[in-house]
Design brief:
By secondary structure, the chain is α+β, with helices and mostly antiparallel strands. The protein folds into three domains: 183 residues, no CATH class; 178 residues, Sandwich (Immunoglobulin-like), CATH 2.60.40; 181 residues, no CATH class. 20% of the residues lie in helices and 24% in strands. The protein has 15 helices and 28 strands. The strands form seven sheets. Strands 23, 24, 25, 26, 27 and 28 form a six-stranded antiparallel β-sheet that branches. A five-stranded mixed β-sheet has the order 18-19-20-22-21, with helices on both faces. It has a four-stranded mixed β-sheet with strand order 4-9-8-6, with no helix packed on it. The longest helix has 19 residues. The radius of gyration is 25 Å and the shape is globular. The protein starts with a strand and ends in a 49-residue tail after the last strand.
Length: 667
């Protein structure tokens, strides 16, 4: 434990090493703070008007496709000769209307050319001092001479060192696809790794640069009738040097080191937010030190503004990397929070960060902010294109174990979350976000209200202190939850280190069969295997499953299965033991009730009554995971059903469906 001194507030203990404030571990820490004093200065007032662009020496250069055919995927990216420009506004000046521009808010946009003609776009880039610089870009689009369409998606802006993905799409082609390949044609050399799933996706790590640089990539598809290709432009933005002790660039295993990668430039979604000039510096900067952590006066939790926050008050705390992310979150809070659960739970957070480089979502009690992967907010293929497809960093953990633990949310014996394969480029309904983003928010806000419960807020907070110092180890909700029917399986605690932290499995752990693991889990008092990773996750999983059942009528399946030879076939995952609605069991129900009581007391009475009406249902042992969407087993131990015809063909294992499989796609 170290003592940090700051002129802005009294000497405090920053218990960064003393408790597990980052529920995902060091590899997922994202940052706070920033240059300019952080906790020393209050936020600047909003602009009273739009200033005229001042004259400055900054050079803006636009690069992209100057000519294209109808139905091409095209893009424009911007480089600037100086750092500090973090807000980008694109305006279409000529041509058939192109809306929305999924990249708006960043230095790179992409879109499909639906109509021929002459197009023109203008970019206005701004920095925090109000300086602006503008540039225009013209493009000529002619009719398509070939019905075959190939697109490399998507042109974009990334920070130096960032990870991102590019996907190649081919439609309306004749014959068969023989092969595809990706090459970098120009720009500073990046690291390229092809996806091992067999899909035409490339994972890219941007190089470090001394100034903004443009990379050009080409994707080629060889078919039996010819070869087709497309290019994508990616601007690598030079970012400020990493100076923060919480965002280290040393390559060591210090638990304070969250990432060695410069973060995306983000900005306050509301330009008139009273915290506009503090938000990104306080919660998403590589320049955080113990001397410039933001005080609660500079960036208060939402609950210090109002005990019943409005949508406008919430949106004043939203930080985004793209405009559409803020628009979507605002609509969700406005239209899909009928019980006010999310608005009430957001009282405990300082900020909501939504950025294309957040993967997976997490909460960090050093900053008091939640960080959301925008994969739960997209509606159009263009929006989805800018989201990094790289797998969750935990995806390979535990590969030498003999079992897996699939799980899913179900409703009426079917998956609760619709599946939208990326390659089909489908749009989805806004109302599809209800349970997708809803389940994510219930989980991450459970962490926020665990670290800063309402009882602690009502007791009073010191606005001149930093958020983390005002949390209280003795007041966290997970202590009360852990005191009720606490989990006892030491074997599962050890396996959680392997599965979720990447520890090397021992020979004994490698010898465990699915039946062994089922015998550890089902007599114990956890509703999820992830619960064994920490008391924070135990509480969040109990709360999330309870609220999904209470508000949406959705149940959760959990099981232990083998590792099949064919990992894509759902019914090759043979259930050793499984359960639906485990949250209603006698050992677990009082733990879940305690979690809701501490995290969202306004919903506790309804949740406690609802929990008493849930009866767990056994999944069918010996049958496939897919067959068990409709379990109908004899006896309470889930033995094979009888007089029920098995499916003729196995369905696909939905590893790409939200909330459906382990390794997890979020948490």
């Amino acid at each position: 434990m170290s003592v940090y001194r700051s002129s802005a507030f009294p000497v405090r203990y920053l218990r960064v090493l003393g408790k597990s404030m980052c529920v995902l571990g060091a590899a997922s820490l994202m940052a706070c703070g920033g240059g300019g004093g952080g906790g020393n200065d209050g936020p600047l007032p909003p602009d009273s008007g739009t200033p005229a662009p001042p004259v400055n020496s900054t050079v803006l250069t636009l690069t992209g496709d100057t000519s294209a055919e109808v139905d091409n995927a095209v893009g424009i990216v911007a480089t600037l000769s100086e750092q500090g420009y973090t807000r980008f506004q694109w305006e279409q000046l000529a041509g058939a209307e192109v809306t929305p521009l999924a990249g708006n808010g960043t230095a790179g946009i992409s879109f499909d050319t639906a109509f021929s003609g002459e197009y023109s776009f203008q970019l206005t880039a701004s920095n925090e001092d109000g300086d602006q610089v503008q540039g225009t870009f013209d493009m000529s689009v002619v009719p398509n001479s070939d019905h075959t369409r190939v697109q490399l998606r998507a042109d974009r802006a990334v920070s130096e060192g960032a990870d991102f993905s590019l996907r190649l799409n081919l439609t309306e082609y004749s014959g068969s696809v023989n092969s595809w390949r990706f090459v970098q044609e120009s720009g500073p050399q990046a690291d390229l790794v092809e996806d091992d799933s067999g899909e035409p996706v490339i994972f890219v790590t941007a190089p470090r640069v001394n100034s903004d640089q443009v990379m050009r990539f080409r994707g080629e598809v060889e078919t039996s009738f010819g070869t087709y290709s497309d290019v994508a432009y990616v601007v690598v933005q030079d970012r400020p040097e990493i100076t923060g002790e919480f965002f280290c660039d040393t390559g060591n295993d210090d638990p304070l080191c969250g990432t060695t990668v410069p973060l995306n430039p983000v900005y306050s979604y509301r330009s008139d937010s009273p915290y506009r000039d503090a938000l990104s510096q306080c919660v998403y900067s590589n320049r955080l030190t113990s001397n410039n952590l933001c005080s609660l006066r500079t960036l208060p939790i939402i609950g210090l503004t109002s005990n019943a926050p409005t949508v406008d008050q919430i949106m004043d705390h939203v930080v985004v990397s793209h405009d559409w992310m803020g628009e979507r979150f605002e609509r969700f809070i406005s239209e899909l929070d009928p019980y006010g659960d999310f608005a009430l739970m957001l009282r405990s957070v300082t900020a909501i960060v939504i950025s294309s480089d957040v993967r997976p979502s997490f909460y960090w009690s050093l900053t008091g902010a939640i960080y959301l992967d925008p994969d739960s907010l997209w509606l159009t293929p263009g929006e989805r294109d800018v989201i990094n497809e790289q797998p969750d960093f935990r995806s390979g953990f535990g590969s030498d174990l003999q079992y897996v633990t699939p799980w899913r949310y179900v409703k009426n014996n079917n998956y609760a979350f619709p599946l939208y394969p990326v390659y089909l480029r489908e749009s989805r309904s806004f109302f599809d976000l209800e349970v997708d983003l809803g389940s994510l928010l219930y989980h991450e806000l459970a962490h926020a209200n665990d670290a800063m419960p309402q009882a602690l807020i009502q007791r009073g907070l010191n606005r001149d202190d930093v958020f983390y110092n005002q949390t209280d180890d003795t007041a966290v909700v997970n202590l009360a939850v852990s005191a009720v029917n606490g989990m006892t399986s030491q074997e599962l605690y050890g396996l959680a280190d392997v599965r979720y932290r990447g520890y090397q499995a021992t020979l004994l752990q490698q010898s465990y069969t699915p039946a062994d693991v089922a015998n550890f889990f089902f007599p114990d008092s956890a509703n999820a295997f992830y619960s064994y990773s920490s008391a924070w996750e135990d509480t969040a999983m109990l709360f999330e499953e309870t609220m999904m059942s209470l508000r949406y009528g959705i149940e959760r399946d959990v099981a232990v299965t083998n590792i099949p030879f064919n990992p894509t076939s759902a019914d090759d995952y043979v259930v050793a033991q499984g359960q639906r609605g485990r949250i209603g069991s006698e050992l677990i129900r009082p733990r879940a009730s305690t979690a809701v009581q501490g995290l969202l007391p306004e919903a506790w009475a309804a949740a406690d009554d609802h929990l008493r009406g849930i009866t767990p249902v056994a999944l069918c042992a010996g049958e496939g995971w897919g067959q068990n969407l409709s379990p109908a087993c004899a006896g309470s131990f889930g033995v094979l059903r009888f007089e029920v015809e098995a499916p003729n063909a196995s369905g696909r294992m939905p590893t790409d469906r939200p909330r459906s499989f382990i390794p997890p796609t979020r948490f």
